[in-house]
Amino acid sequence: MIGKQSRLQSSGESLRPRPCLLIQGQLRSGSPISPVSRRGPQPRCKTFNSILLFVSDRTLKPLNLARHRLEAFVSSRSEWCISRQRSWGVPIPILFDEAGRPVLACLEHTIQVLEDRGIDHWWSGPIEDFLPTAYEGPALRKGGDTLDVWFDSGSAWTSIEDVTTDKVADVCLEGSDQHRGWFQSSLLTRLMTTDKDTPVAGTIITHGFITDESGRKMSKSEGNGISPADIVHGSTVSLPPFL
What we know:
- The chain is of the alpha/beta class.
- It contains six helices and nine strands, in the order βββαββααββαβαβα.
- It has helices at residues 63-74, 107-117, 121-124, 149-154, 182-193, 228-233; strands spanning 4-5, 18-19, 60-61, 83-84, 95-96, 141-142, 146-147, 169-175, 201-207.
- The strands form four sheets. It has a three-stranded parallel sheet. A two-stranded antiparallel sheet has the order 1-2. A two-stranded antiparallel ribbon has the order 4-7.
- Residues 1-37 have low confidence and may be disordered.
């Protein structure tokens, strides 16, 4: 879920509320989690609250569901924290000085090193590999944050050969849960990184979900799903009559 959490008071100083992305509720395992507000890369984009202005009604299918859900998830956003503190994922390859400030002068060299040696070298390689030959500044450290997976997947459209066209793809198809995920992040990354006023796809289609005999959505966590392979190839397990 998208929520807001006020930054804690520090040394008696009252800090203004700061919008951030956080997870509320429980993981699939059922274990409770505690949201933590932390500084991280936060692209500020004036399009957060106007994202639907450039998505025509003809683009969204079905219209009411898609538009209402996108509005609900976007309307309260003003920032997007794209960093995560996980032990897995795509790293954000930024070097920091002793005061915690990012040193962008090393970024181009770092990118070249990772293109030559692979992204995992960020974790395994010594920091000296990421310092340009002429670097004579203060001691640096590698950042340990990873990229938000929604930013990662949401920018997948950039891998298409020609991203300069008004319409990168014909159709973007996913379930309704992606109005807070892939649908939204694809639209945002498109708006933030190009001068195009058109969405990634000509049509954004929201499909439904397969339900069980009680009308509940089939899911792994509920244990009421059926493997598509059992349906395609046949199975010794009796399939429900409604299939």
